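Standup notes
- DV: blocked on the single-chain target, sequence here:
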Amino acid sequence: MTAFYHVCFVVPDIEQAMRDFERAAGVEWSEPLADRLGEWDYRIVFTTGGPPFIELIEGPPGSPWDAAEGARFDHIGFWTTDLRRGARRLAEAGLPEDFSGCPYGRPFAYHRMDSVGARVELVDIARQAAFLDKWHPGGEPMPAVDESSGG
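- DV (later): unblocked, structure below
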């Protein structure tokens, strides 16, 4: 099995969630980043110290990270050697695609895993170097699901 590299919580208040995790588990955070995907402005942050990371996303109503009904566990993230093949593999396994960042120039996709009430995220391995530069400078490469071998 390939190790996941992060878990993500969607939150209505990123600073409060960061403080709560600091108090509860002593985690440390990078600086939150404001970004935009399509029509949605959002904020994102990852823990420091290496994988597995905790990710927090604060997004607006109607976005893939809508927390209007409260904070929630949203997804578990894996790197993949081939996003298209990985997305097809998950869909064929009964985990339908819920959202894709590909039309917005972002190589990731969320797939629903209804049995746990959350999503699985696949992120193309081509993004890993940029991820490490931003969130874990000097960090070692992380493993990816090898889609050429069927996962």
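- Follow-up: The first helix runs from residue 14 to 25.
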